[in-house]
Amino acid sequence: MGTWRMKTDDSAATGHGTAARVRGQTGRAAERVWGGVRGAPVSIALLVAIWILAIATSSVISGPSHDLSQHVAIGIRAFQNGWVWTLLTAGLWGDDVLAYLSTTVLLLVVAAPLERRMGSARFTLAAVATQVLGGLLALSVAAVAKVVDANWGFRLHVGMAVGPSTWIVGAAMVASSDMGTLWRRRIRVGVLVFTITLALFSGSLQDVVRLAAAVVGLVIGRWIVGRSARGERIAGTQREGRVLVAIVVAASAIGPMIAALSAEAVGPLAVLRDLFRGVPYTAGEVRDLCEVSAADPECRRGLLELRLSGIGPTLLSLMPSLFLLTLSDGLRRGRRFAWVASVIAQVILLVLSLLNFAVRFVDSLDEDSLFYGLADPNLYRTLVPFLTPLAILIVLLATRRFFDVSAPAGTYRRLAGVLVALAAGLAVLYVLGGLWARHGFDPRPGMTTLLADFPERLIPPVYLQWLDPRLLPESIPATLLYEWTGVVFWIALCALVAATFLSPAIGSDSKSTERARALLKSGSGSPLSWMTTWRGNNYWFSADGTSYVAYRVIAGVALTTGDPVGPPDRLRDTVEHFAEFAAANGWIPCFYSVTGEVRDITDALGWSGIQVAEETVLDLGQIAFTGKRFQDVRTALNKAKKSGITAEWVSFPSAPRAITDQITAISEEWVADKGMPEMGFTLGGLDEVDDPEVRCLVAVDEDRTVHGITSWLPVYQDGRVVGWTLDFMRRRAEGFRPAMEFLIASAALKLEEEGAQFLSLSGAPLAKVEQPDGDADERERSESSSLSAVMDSVLDLLGRTLEPVYGFRSLLAFKSKFQPRYVAMHMTFADPAALPSIGNAVGRAYLPTVSLGQSYRLVRTMIGGRR
C-alpha cells in the first residue's frame, strides 16, 4: 500500500511537473508572440488595414468587385488611365478568403519578424519600393510578352493583380542581403524558384508581379540594409548543395503539375500540359459524333481524348512528376541512384517532348489525323517545352560531385526483382481481368491482345497519342483495369524507390564497412579508428580476417586512415602485408595520422616519416577543473549555469526534428561563413554525425534553442568502449559564446562518471607543440632523410599559411585550455621520392570537391589573411 502511494505521489508530481513545463513553454511562446507584435507596428497596422478594407468593400469572400479592381488593382489599363496609385493599393487587397487568410499568416510569420530585424523605417521602405518597382517591372514584362507570345501577352495585358504577397516577398529578398550566408542563399533560392515556377507555369499577372518584386528586392537590398558583415563564401557545403539542387528538381516537377491541373494556367511553360493531358471531349460530344459515322476521324479523335481524360489517365500522366519529386528527396540525401535516375528521367523527358511535338507537327498536316495538332505552330511554342528538362539536365551534370552516397550492396538488385515481380503480377491481373470483362472492351480482346496491350498501360497515356489504341474500355470494370493498372505500378515504384533512400548508407562498399565495424567493435583500435568506418574508405582485410586497414587510392597513392585495426600483436604483420598488397597493385603505400607504435614499425622497415598533427588527450579518473590553469573552463561552466544552458546527450538519427534542424542550420551556417571549402578525410561533418554509434552533446537553453554541438566517436579496446574522440564542433554564431569550453568540460565530467578512461580531443592537422630538448630521438628520426626534413619544413610553412583560413594552430591552442596530454601523430611512407604525389593525395583527400575557381579564392583568402 505504501509502495502504491509512493508511486502515485511520484506520478502526480511528475504530472504536475509536466503541466508546469507545458504552461511555462506556452507562456514563453505567448510572450515571444506578443514581443513580436510590439516590435512590428507597421506589419500589424497593415494587417488591420487589409482586413478593414476587405470587410468595408465586401471583398473577403471573392476579392474586390470588377469595378473596384479597375481602381485598386495593378493592370495595364489602369496605368494607361493614369491611376498610378494602383501600384500601391494593389498590395492592400486579396483575391478571395484564402488569400486573406494566407496573408494574415505571412504577415505574422514573415513580415513581422522581418520588420523586427530590419527596423520599421527600412521595412516600410523595402515594402513600398518592391511593391511599386515590382509592379512597374511586371507591366513592362506584360508589354514585351505580347510581342513574343500573343496568347500569354494578351492575358497579361487584360489581367489585374492584387495581393500583399508582392511586398512581403520583396521585403524578404531585401532583408536577405545582410543575412548570414546559409539563410541568404536559402531564402533567395527558395523564393526565386517558387516565384519563377509560378510565373512560367501559372503565368497570371499577379505571379509576374510577385516575381518582379523578388527581383527588385534582390537588387536594391544592399542599398537598404547593406551587406552581411561576414565574408564572402568560397564554397557552399556538399549537404547544402544537395538541398538546393533538390529544390530546383522538385520545382521542375511541380510546375508541370500546376499547368496540368490548372485550367487557368497561361504561362509560357503552360504548354507543357500538352505532355500530361489532351484536350478532352465530353461524352455527349463523342456520342453525337459517332452516331453520325463510327468511321469518322472525329469520332476516333473523341474516343482517344476520352482515353486521355478522367481521373485515372490524369493521375497516370502526372506520375513522372511524382517520380521526380521522389527522386528529389534522394538528391537531398546525396544518393547516387537518385542523381542517375534524375539524369535519365530528364533525358527521356527531353527526347519525348521533342518526339511528341515532332510527330504532332507532322501529323497535324494530315486532315485525317487523330491528333490535336499544333495550331499555327511557331518556333517559340515548339522550343519552350524543351527548355525545362534541358536546364535541369545541365544543373544535374554540373553538380554531379555532390551525389556520392551509395545504398547498401544489393539494394537496387532487390528493387529490380520486386519491380519485375510487381509488373508480372499486374500483367496476370490485367489479362485475367480483361478476359473476364472482355465484353466491356471495344473490340473484344483475346489473351494475346491483352498481353500486347499491357505495356502501354504502364506508360502515361499522353506519350501514346501518336499510337492508335488497341482497346477502348466501355464498362466500369474494363475502365478500372485500363486506367488504373499503370497508376498502381507507378505509385508502388515511387514508394519502393523512396524506401531505398531511407536505408542506411554506411560506405562505398557497405558489406566491407559492416565487416570493418564488427571487427572494430569486437577488437581494439586507436582514438581515430572509428573514422575508418566513414564513407569514402576502401578496406583491406588480413588473411586470417582479424585485422583490416582502411584506405583510399588517390593519384596512385594508397592513403590510410589512422592505425590498422586488429590485435596489437599482429600489428607488424598487418602493416607489412598491406604494404605488399598496395605495391602489388602499383600503389604507393602511405600510413596517415598513425600513432608512434606504427611509426616504430615502419622505421624498423626502413621507411621515412614526419609528424603531421598533435593529438590532445584528457586522462579521466580524477579530473577536476580547479586552479588558475582552468579559469576559462570554470568560467564557461558557471556562465552556462547562470544562463540556464545545460548539456544533453542526443543521437542525431533519433533526436527530435526540432533539435536536428537546428544542428543542421548551425553547421551549414558555420561552414558557409568560414568562407572555405568543406574538408573531409579525418574531419567529419553532418554525414558522419548521422550515425547511431556516435554520441552528440548539445548545449540547449530553456527554450530548447541549441547553442552548440560536439560529437564523440567511440574508442574500443578488447571489445568494449574505453574512451571517446571529439570530432564535430559547431557553435551558433550569435549564441552562448563559450559553448565549446562548456561542452567539452561537460563531456569530460559526464563520461568520467560513466567509467570512460580517457577523452581524445582529436588531432590538429599541420599543428604541433614545441617538443622539449629531451625529445631528441624524434628530431633525429625527422632528420634521417633530407627529403623528409624538407617536407617537414613545407608542412610547417603550409600550416602557417592555412592558419588564416582553417585555424588549425588556433584550434590546438584552444584545446590547451584543458591541460591535455600531447601525443604526436605521424605520416609514414616507403619512398621519400614519392612525397610530391603523397602531398597531392593528402590535399585531395581533405578537399575532394574543390574546383579551380574555389582554389583561386582560397589562395586569395590565405594571402589576404597573412597580410
UniProtKB/TrEMBL annotation:
- Tell me the InterPro entries matching this sequence: LPG_synthase_C, Peptidase_S54_rhomboid_dom, PG_lysyltransferase, Rhomboid-like_sf
Entry membrane topology? Multi-pass membrane protein
Please list every transmembrane segment annotated in the UniProt record, as residue ranges.
42-61, 97-114, 126-148, 154-175, 187-205, 211-229, 241-263, 306-325, 337-359, 379-403, 415-437, 487-507
Q: Does the keyword Lyase apply?
A: no
Query: What Gene3D superfamilies does the entry give?
Result: Rhomboid-like
UniProt domain Peptidase S54 rhomboid: residue ranges: 84-224
- Keywords associated with the record: Cell membrane, Membrane, Transmembrane, Transmembrane helix
Domain of life the protein comes from? Bacteria
According to the entry, every stretch annotated as the Phosphatidylglycerol lysyltransferase C-terminal domain falls at 518-823
Question: According to its record, what are the GO cellular component terms?
Answer: plasma membrane
**Which molecular function terms from Gene Ontology are attached?**
aminoacyltransferase activity; serine-type endopeptidase activity
Query: GO biological process: any one?
Result: phospholipid homeostasis
Location(s) in or outside the cell: Cell membrane
Q: Where is the composition biased (Basic and acidic residues)?
A: 1-10
- Record region (Disordered): 1-24
Q: Pfam families, alphabetically?
A: LPG_synthase_C, Rhomboid
PANTHER family with a match to the protein in the record: PHOSPHATIDYLGLYCEROL LYSYLTRANSFERASE
Q: What is this protein called?
A: Phosphatidylglycerol lysyltransferase C-terminal domain-containing protein
Q: Which organism does this record belong to?
A: Rhodococcus wratislaviensis
Which taxonomic lineage is given here? Bacteria, Bacillati, Actinomycetota, Actinomycetes, Mycobacteriales
